[in-house]
Amino acid sequence: MNTSSLITETKAKFNFNLAKVHIKEKYQNKLIVAEQGGLWKITPELIAFASLAVDEAIILLDTYENPVEVNRVAFLAKISSEYKTVMQEYLDEWKKLKNIR
What does pTM read for this prediction? Predict the structure, then answer.
Protein backbone atom coordinates (compact mmCIF):
# COMPACT_ATOMS: atom_id res chain seq x y z
CA MET A 1 0.00 0.00 0.00
CA ASN A 2 1.46 3.34 -0.99
CA THR A 3 1.33 6.62 0.88
CA SER A 4 -1.27 8.30 -1.32
CA SER A 5 -3.74 5.44 -0.94
CA LEU A 6 -3.17 5.47 2.82
CA ILE A 7 -3.86 9.20 2.94
CA THR A 8 -6.99 8.79 0.81
CA GLU A 9 -8.28 5.97 3.00
CA THR A 10 -7.56 7.92 6.18
CA LYS A 11 -9.37 11.01 4.89
CA ALA A 12 -12.36 8.90 3.85
CA LYS A 13 -12.54 7.29 7.31
CA PHE A 14 -12.21 10.68 9.00
CA ASN A 15 -14.97 12.18 6.82
CA PHE A 16 -17.23 9.19 7.50
CA ASN A 17 -16.74 9.49 11.26
CA LEU A 18 -17.33 13.24 11.11
CA ALA A 19 -20.55 12.73 9.13
CA LYS A 20 -21.65 10.05 11.59
CA VAL A 21 -21.22 12.43 14.54
CA HIS A 22 -23.01 15.19 12.63
CA ILE A 23 -26.12 13.17 11.84
CA LYS A 24 -26.26 11.77 15.39
CA GLU A 25 -26.30 15.30 16.84
CA LYS A 26 -28.77 16.45 14.21
CA TYR A 27 -31.31 13.81 15.12
CA GLN A 28 -30.73 14.04 18.87
CA ASN A 29 -31.65 17.72 18.60
CA LYS A 30 -34.83 16.80 16.73
CA LEU A 31 -35.85 14.67 19.71
CA ILE A 32 -36.27 17.77 21.89
CA VAL A 33 -39.89 18.95 21.89
CA ALA A 34 -42.01 21.46 23.75
CA GLU A 35 -45.21 19.82 24.90
CA GLN A 36 -47.81 20.56 27.59
CA GLY A 37 -45.81 23.31 29.26
CA GLY A 38 -42.43 21.57 29.39
CA LEU A 39 -39.39 20.97 27.23
CA TRP A 40 -38.69 17.27 26.78
CA LYS A 41 -35.87 15.14 25.43
CA ILE A 42 -37.65 12.13 24.00
CA THR A 43 -35.92 8.93 25.05
CA PRO A 44 -37.01 5.30 25.07
CA GLU A 45 -37.05 5.54 28.88
CA LEU A 46 -39.48 8.48 28.82
CA ILE A 47 -41.75 6.63 26.40
CA ALA A 48 -41.60 3.47 28.53
CA PHE A 49 -42.41 5.38 31.72
CA ALA A 50 -45.35 7.15 30.13
CA SER A 51 -46.55 3.82 28.72
CA LEU A 52 -46.41 2.04 32.07
CA ALA A 53 -48.02 4.73 34.18
CA VAL A 54 -51.70 4.14 34.89
CA ASP A 55 -52.91 7.58 35.94
CA GLU A 56 -54.53 9.96 33.46
CA ALA A 57 -52.28 12.80 34.61
CA ILE A 58 -48.66 12.26 35.59
CA ILE A 59 -46.02 14.61 36.91
CA LEU A 60 -42.65 14.53 35.19
CA LEU A 61 -39.46 16.56 35.38
CA ASP A 62 -38.75 18.28 32.09
CA THR A 63 -35.33 19.04 30.63
CA TYR A 64 -34.88 21.97 33.03
CA GLU A 65 -35.83 19.79 36.03
CA ASN A 66 -39.18 21.58 36.42
CA PRO A 67 -42.11 19.44 37.54
CA VAL A 68 -44.85 19.46 34.90
CA GLU A 69 -48.22 17.75 35.08
CA VAL A 70 -49.12 16.24 31.71
CA ASN A 71 -52.05 14.36 30.25
CA ARG A 72 -50.36 10.98 29.96
CA VAL A 73 -52.33 9.66 26.97
CA ALA A 74 -51.90 12.78 24.81
CA PHE A 75 -48.27 13.16 25.90
CA LEU A 76 -47.48 9.54 25.09
CA ALA A 77 -49.12 9.79 21.67
CA LYS A 78 -47.11 12.92 20.83
CA ILE A 79 -43.71 11.70 22.00
CA SER A 80 -44.15 8.21 20.52
CA SER A 81 -45.13 9.63 17.15
CA GLU A 82 -42.29 12.14 17.16
CA TYR A 83 -39.75 9.50 18.20
CA LYS A 84 -40.84 7.13 15.45
CA THR A 85 -40.68 9.86 12.79
CA VAL A 86 -37.26 11.15 13.82
CA MET A 87 -35.73 7.70 14.19
CA GLN A 88 -36.99 6.68 10.75
CA GLU A 89 -35.38 9.79 9.23
CA TYR A 90 -32.18 9.00 11.15
CA LEU A 91 -32.16 5.42 9.85
CA ASP A 92 -32.73 6.56 6.26
CA GLU A 93 -29.86 9.05 6.44
CA TRP A 94 -27.63 6.49 8.15
CA LYS A 95 -28.25 3.99 5.34
CA LYS A 96 -27.32 6.61 2.74
CA LEU A 97 -24.15 7.43 4.65
CA LYS A 98 -23.15 3.77 4.90
CA ASN A 99 -23.65 3.32 1.14
CA ILE A 100 -21.40 6.28 0.38
CA ARG A 101 -18.65 4.83 2.55
Answer: 0.83
